[in-house]
């Protein structure tokens, strides 16, 4: 009996001691970032000295070269590049868009959707028809749509608290709308920008054509202009409002690019990996500050923090700058392929691709009930720092391919506050000046803390 009591007290004491050690380590992580952090200054360099980084561009290559040097300067154990072929789409000269109401011509802000084809050199002028869903195309049919420009005008659903859900429910009109409209003979597509903000900034993003389908030009229109166009269409049925737009984008041959990888080797399990990353590429309308400059700079900074503290990880920790998330996901696919080829055992992969706003917590995919219970025990450690929302469901486009290629991996998405992300997402507003230093640093420290806890305790 005395032995059982002694063992129980020993277990309780060791658990308390372990929590105290973890709490102390998290405090050190946050202190290192808040006092000596380099994430914000690195982001400034990426945005201002390199700028937009669309896959296949010269700036994307500059970012790769600089990213590799940055990891090397931190003294990571191994820094290298992974070759990946990526699509090379270019926007060309600035787009022109106009609402034509009889003799009146009203200029409106538009931006070609990524991967779209160009209009003819003279542009396209046609009657325009407004729809709210892809299903509505089926109802209208070819007799109504043929020869017209289709205007997809479904706004964000404001009832979702997490704006990513609003983005998800509105995104099909950009992703699949042009291909669907082409089937019914449309000559072009205009899509309401995917944002809840009312402004005059068009938000670009990729569209996808059927491989053997007809390709028609497609552009995003600002939300204010979309509302204006919708009102005009409702007020004046005959003669129909016309729309004119001209864009000069084109596809070039695929080009060679790279994922950038830096490692801290594991002291006990060097062949087991914890990956943290974001995507280095960005759209071409701005600097890609939140999408995803904060993600890549936060990821490498999280690893730098652990090294600066003299932490020796049990497992190998990897920071990855993925290439081509925005218009192809080629970097994430290649990373997963190489992981499978090399028979790597991945414990977890963390992605930061929702901006550098105030950290709220993390979402997990792949945990068993028991594992999730163990993870929720970490809430107390995160509570002093505001990052204690640990929930089921998370990941990211770049780490998603790992799920199929590396069985047993836990995918994790970093979840910052979402309310402002789509104000800047894919638009000319995604610049360094719209990133808050303090928020970025707190998020970076929370990521480093999660890496530490996973490395120390795993999920079981």
Total number of beta strands: 16
Q: How many distinct domains?
A: 2
What's the pLDDT, averaged over the residues?
A: 95
CATH class of the largest domain: Alpha Beta
Beta-strand residue percentage:
15-25%
Output the number of helix runs: 16
What's the CATH superfamily of the largest domain, by name? Zn peptidases
Give your account of this protein's structure:
The structure is a single chain. This protein has 460 residues and is an alpha/beta fold. It folds into two domains: 266 residues, Zn peptidases (Aminopeptidase, 3-Layer(aba) Sandwich), CATH 3.40.630.10; 155 residues, Glucose Oxidase, domain 1 (3-Layer(bba) Sandwich), CATH 3.50.30. The strands form two sheets. The chain has an eight-stranded mixed beta sheet, sandwiched between helices. The longest helix is centred in the first third of the chain and has 35 residues. It starts with a helix and ends with a helix. About 2% of the residues have low confidence.
């Amino acid at each position: 009996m005395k032995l059982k009591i002694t063992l129980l007290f020993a277990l309780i004491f060791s658990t308390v001691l372990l929590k105290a050690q973890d709490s102390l380590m998290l405090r050190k992580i946050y202190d290192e970032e808040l006092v000596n952090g380099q994430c914000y200054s690195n982001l400034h360099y990426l945005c201002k000295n390199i700028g937009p980084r669309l896959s296949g561009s010269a700036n994307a290559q500059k970012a790769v070269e600089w990213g590799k040097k940055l990891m090397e300067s931190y003294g990571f154990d191994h820094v290298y590049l992974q070759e990946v072929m990526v699509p090379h789409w270019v926007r060309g000269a600035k787009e022109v868009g106009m609402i034509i109401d009889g003799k009146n011509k009203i200029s409106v802000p538009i931006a070609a959707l990524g991967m779209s084809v160009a209009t003819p050199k003279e542009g396209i002028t046609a009657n325009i028809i407004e729809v709210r869903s892809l299903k509505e195309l089926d109802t209208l049919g070819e007799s109504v749509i043929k020869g017209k420009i289709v205007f997809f005008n479904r706004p964000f659903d404001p009832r979702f608290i997490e704006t990513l859900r609003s983005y998800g429910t509105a995104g099909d009109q950009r992703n699949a709308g042009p291909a669907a409209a082409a089937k019914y003979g449309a000559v072009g597509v205009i899509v309401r920008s995917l944002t809840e903000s009312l402004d005059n900034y068009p938000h670009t993003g990729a569209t996808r054509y059927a491989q053997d389908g007809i390709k028609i030009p497609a552009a995003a229109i600002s939300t204010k202009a979309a509302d204006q166009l919708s009102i005009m269409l409702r007020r004046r049925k005959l003669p129909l409002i016309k729309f004119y737009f001209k864009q000069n984008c084109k596809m070039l041959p695929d080009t060679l690019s790279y994922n950038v990888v830096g490692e801290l080797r594991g002291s006990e399990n060097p062949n087991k990996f914890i990956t943290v990353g974001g995507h280095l590429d960005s759209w071409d309308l701005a600097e890609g500050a939140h999408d995803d400059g904060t993600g890549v700079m936060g990821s490498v900074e999280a690893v730098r923090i652990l090294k600066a503290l003299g932490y020796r990880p049990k497992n190998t920790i990897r920071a990855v700058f993925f290439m081509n998330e925005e218009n192809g996901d080629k970097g994430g696919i290649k990373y997963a392929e190489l992981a499978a080829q090399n028979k790597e055992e991945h414990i977890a992969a963390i992605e930061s691709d929702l901006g550098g706003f105030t950290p709220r917590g993390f979402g997990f995919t792949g945990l068993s009930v028991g594992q999730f219970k163990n993870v929720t025990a970490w809430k107390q450690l995160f509570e002093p720092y505001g990052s204690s929302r640990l929930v089921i469901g998370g990941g990211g486009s770049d780490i998603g391919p790992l799920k199929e290629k590396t069985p047993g991996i836990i995918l994790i998405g970093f979840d910052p506050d979402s309310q402002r992300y789509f104000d800047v997402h894919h638009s000319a507003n995604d610049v360094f000046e719209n990133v808050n230093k303090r928020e970025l640093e707190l998020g970076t420290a929370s990521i480093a803390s999660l890496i530490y806890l996973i490395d120390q305790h795993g999920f079981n």
